[in-house]
Amino acid sequence: MAVERTFVMIKPDGVMRNLAGKVIGRFEQAGFKIVGLRMAKPTKEQVEGFYPSSDDWFGKIGEKTKHRYNQLGIDGKAVFGTNNNITIGKMVKKWLISYISSSPVVLMVLEGNNAAEKTRKMVGNTDPINADTGTIRGDFTLESVDWANSDKRAVMNIVHASGDSAEAKEEIAYWFKPAELFDYENAFDIIINKLGDA
C-alpha cells in the first residue's frame, strides 16, 4: 500500500454552487482521510505563483486547447488571434488567475492509498463535457473548454487535484503550513489495523 497525501482545491464555482460538502463527502466515502482543510480567498498574486509559468507548461496548455478546438472543427486562431501554443497558454493562465481569485475556495489535503492517482480518477477529465458520469466533473457540470474559451474565461470545472505525488508535495507546501496538517487514526485506519492483526 502506498499511503500518500495529495492536494485538492474546490474552485469558486464549486463553492458558489454549494457543492463543497458533496465533493468532500465523495472523498470521505472513498476512504480518504482529510488531514488539512481550510477556506481561503486567494489573491491574484497567490494564484499567479500557484500555476506554473514555464514555456513548457504554457505550451502544453496551448496545445491541449488547440487540440480540443480541432476536435470540434473550430478555428483556434479565430478565437485566440494566434496559433502559438505558448501565447495561448499565457492567455489561459490569465483567465485562471481571474477565476480562482474571484471568490473563496476550499483547500484540502487528503491522505490515502495512491492518493494523487485515485483523486484524479474521481475528479474526471479537465474538460467536464468529456468527464465520465460518476466523476465529480461529470456529475456536477455541463461546462466545456470551448464554451469557456469562447467567453474568454477559464473553464469552471469544480475542482483542482494534483497531477501526481510530486506535484502534490509542492502544492501542499504552497497552501499549507506543516502545523495545519494533522496525523490521526480514522475509522478506515482502525478497520485495516484490526483486520490486519486478525
Shape label = elongated
E-strand count = 4
Show unreliable segments.
none
- Average pLDDT, all residues: 93
Tell me the strand percentage band.
5-15%
Helix-strand string: EHHEHHHHEHHHEHH
Alpha-carbon distance between the two ends: 18 Å
Structural class: alpha+beta
**What's the domain count?**
2
Question: What is the name of the CATH topology of the largest domain?
Answer: Alpha-Beta Plaits
CATH superfamily of the largest domain: Nucleoside diphosphate kinase-like domain
The CATH class designation of the largest domain is: Alpha Beta
Q: Count of helices?
A: 11
Question: Largest beta sheet: what is the strand line-up?
Answer: 2-3-1-4
The major sheet is characterized as: 4 strands, antiparallel
Q: Judging by the overall fold, what is the CATH architecture of the largest domain?
A: 2-Layer Sandwich
Brief synopsis:
The chain has 198 residues and is of the alpha+beta class. It contains eleven helices and four strands; from the N terminus they run βααβααααβαααβαα.
